[in-house]
Specification:
By secondary structure, this protein is an alpha+beta fold. It has one domain (about 5-195). The protein is about 40% helix and about 25% strand. The protein is built from six helices and nine strands, in the order H-E-E-H-H-E-H-E-E-E-E-H-E-E-H. The protein has helices at about 10-30, 50-60, 65-80, 100-105, 155-165, 185-195; strands at about 35, 40-45, 85-95, 115-120, 130, 135, 145-155, 170-175, 175-185. The strands form two sheets. A five-stranded antiparallel β-sheet has the order 1-2-3-7-6. Helix 1 (about 10-30) packs across helix 2 and helix 2 packs antiparallel against helix 3 (about 65-80). The longest helix is centred in the first third of the chain and has 21 residues, at about 10-30. It is globular, with a radius of gyration of 17 Å.
Amino acid sequence: MNRIAATEILDLGDYERRRDELRASAVRARRERRVALGPNATLTFENRETVRYQIQEMLRAERIAKPEEVEHEIETYSDLLPTPCELSATLMFELPDEAERAPTLTALRDFESHLRLEIGRGAQRAPDAAPARFDRRQIGEDRLSSVQFVRFPLSKPQCDALRAGAPVRIASDHPAYAHATTIDAATARTLAKDLED
């Protein structure tokens, strides 16, 4: 299984000393992998650096130092790592108006059946679409959570097309949130490279 090794995680003291440097690098890595989908949603594709940073920040925030507790955080967050032919992302719905948040998230029920990554042939739907796979533990019966962990399992032809520089789009055809965004070429190259790491 693809996972972060315990040896990749700094102890709290070392992390504090290097935090500014590591945070700057992680923020840059996240920016390179962030894709807006419509006015209220962003997907941030994950890689080893972004996941390692999330673990370090969680350990710091919760003051976690016991080896078994550190291991638990590593295990939890390693689920976010992409695999050789599967991208992963954190999907976030940003709804600043509190009065609109609950009704909007309720209207987004079943969103997991409507999100896909389109690769190749002008990135227009049909045979080249990779449906999103959501973490079922984060989906409520009455509404969607505003933060979701999403995976996009790719077929070998889709992986090959992504690596070859084919056009890529992220698209939703949910009735309450139908939007599509073409992923710029630099971001697509970054995602293709993440499949290799």
